[in-house]
Specification:
- It holds the Pfam family CO_deh_flav_C.
- Keywords: Oxidoreductase.
- The chain is an alpha+beta fold.
- Among the domains are: 5-52, Uridine Diphospho-n-acetylenolpyruvylglucosamine Reductase, domain 2 (2-Layer Sandwich); 220-324, 2-Layer Sandwich (Enolase-like, domain 1), CATH 3.30.390.
- The protein is built from 14 helices and 12 strands.
- It has a 5-stranded antiparallel beta sheet with strand order 4-5-8-6-7.
- The termini are far apart.
- Bound molecules: iron/sulfur cluster.
- Iron/sulfur cluster (SF4) binds next to helix 8.
């Protein structure tokens, strides 16, 4: 690991000012992903701005939204009674993430900004367009079992690893930012970017911007939500396929639905077309299967991940059947 400078910020404005005025800097909170990347040479910074002392760890609810501070730790959010009551999918996604030790350390803002688990990206000796733009993407013709079947480009097919981001995508969350030009709010659907020809750019953050809070709208949908994560082992493992689903039912009929997926897209993958298949119709095996077919209609699987096309449809069927009581 190469040498870097280190400053402890006292206020969010202080943190942004230091980051904006220091070349090649980044913020650090739990450091559970960042320090591994720096140690392995997959990411390098000249300066770290420690934000752990900022007053951004609160969790509150008002009439409009559940508001989660960016420095709230994963464990705290997962176990918080407000989160469990208002948006169980968030709690379930967090409890399915990482290990208890990591959940104690890692903050919500950092969780949303964690980098892909693509092995080529994390190996500083490999080519990788995301790490070194223009160097190539060996995953497209190489080992791609964990990679995306939706949203990929000729430049990158990596998935985003955050379970929480998938759940927040299903619930139409908003990410609040503070930067050198002031505060702004970005819908999570616009926060994560498709790789296109610039896979090194993953999120809509501007230089020096800090995530301060995430807001989740209070809806009856959010209160009826679930997260299912399929992975290669039962703990401390990233999703092969995951589903965040929320349903609002009147009797057997779906009044409204939200569906987002992990492990299949190059960003947390929302599918409004699959939601539209369900809306206004009885929740049956037939309508669920139709929604699944719509979801994978544009899938472009690769050599090692063709199984995800069927697996994600089965995962969707399981979540919706459990949520909606389909026998
Ligand atoms: Fe790099 Fe993306 Fe290709 Fe992985 S899939 S090697 S992250 S460019």
């Amino acid at each position: 690991m190469r040498n870097f400078g280190y400053t402890v910020a006292r206020t969010p404005e202080d943190a942004v000012r230091i980051a904006a005025g220091t070349r090649n800097s980044t913020f650090v909170s739990g450091g559970t992903d960042l320090l591994n990347l720096m140690r392995d040479g997959a990411q390098a910074h000249d300066h770290l701005v420690d934000i752990n002392r900022l007053d951004l760890a609160g969790i509150a609810v008002d009439r409009q939204a559940l508001r989660i501070g960016a420095l709230a730790r994963m464990r705290h959010v997962a176990e918080h009674p407000l989160v469990r009551r208002e948006s169980p999918v968030l709690s379930e996604a967090l409890l399915a993430s990482a290990s208890p030790q990591v959940r104690n350390m890692a903050a919500i803002g950092g969780n949303l900004l964690q980098r892909t688990r693509c092995g080529y990206f994390r190996d500083a000796g490999s080519a990788c367009n995301k790490r070194v733009p223009g160097s190539g993407c060996p995953a497209i013709t190489g080992y791609n079992r964990g990679h995306a079947i939706l949203g990929g480009s000729d430049h990158c097919i990596a998935t985003h690893p955050s379970d929480l981001a998938v759940a927040l995508t299903a619930l139409d969350a908003t990410v609040h930012l503070l930067g050198p030009d002031g505060a702004r709010a970005v819908p999570i659907a616009d926060f994560y970017l498709l790789p296109g020809s610039t896979p090194e750019r993953e999120v809509a953050l501007r230089p020096g911007e800090l995530i301060t809070r995430v807001d989740v709208p209070r809806t009856s949908l959010a209160a009826q939500s679930r997260y299912l994560k399929l992975r290669d082992r039962a703990t401390f493992e990233f999703a092969v396929v995951s589903v965040a689903a929320a349903l609002q039912m009147t009797g057997r009929t779906v009044r409204d639905a939200r569906l987002a997926f992990g492990g299949i897209g190059t960003r947390p993958w929302r599918d409004t077309r699959a939601e539209a298949v369900l809306r206004g119709r009885p929740l049956t095996e037939t309508t669920i299967a139709e929604a699944g077919r719509v979801l994978v209609r544009d899938a472009k699987p690769h050599n090692d991940n063709r199984f995800k096309v069927e697996l994600v449809q089965r995962a969707l069927a399981r979540v919706l059947s459990e949520l909606g009581g389909v026998r």
